[in-house]
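pinging the channel bc i need a second pair of eyes. not urgent but kinda urgent?? the chain im working w is below, pasted from the shared doc
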Amino acid sequence: AKTTARLFIKPVDFIPQFLATSIGDTTNVLDLDNPITFSFRTNVIAGPDAVVTISELANTNTPSGTIALSGAHAVIFGSSGVFDQAAGTMTLTVAYGKTIDPGMDVSATFTLRNGGVVQQRRIATIRIDASSSCTRPSIG
C-alpha cells in the first residue's frame, strides 16, 4: 500500500478554527431514543488519533460505553465513539489511515436515549484536539 504525506504550511497569523459547526437532535420526548447528527468543517488537518469531543450531552438514559456511528463520515472515526454519561460527552477518535482535511465537511449520527426528566435546553459544543510531531493545535 502506498502512503502519502501531507504538509500544511501555516502562515504566522494562522488561527485554528471551525469554519462551520452544527449539532441537531430529532426528538425531545422523554425516555425515547434520540438520533443526534453533528457536522463540522475546520481549517486544520486532523490525522489519526485526533480527538473530536461533543459535550453538553448530559442527563441521558444512555449508559457510558461504545456507541455506533452512522452516516457519510462515520468511517473516519471507526464507525463508533465513546459516550461518558457522567461527563455528558461523546468522544470520537480519527481512525488509523484516516484524516480530516482542511475545508472538509464531516458529518455523522449517533443515538442517545433521552432522560426521563424535563431539563433546561443545553447547547452542545464540538472540540478537536489533534497532535503531530511538531505542533498540538486545539480548537473549540
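so Residues 132-136 have pLDDT under 50 and may be disordered. and The longest strand covers residues 33-42. — does that match what u expected or am i reading it wrong
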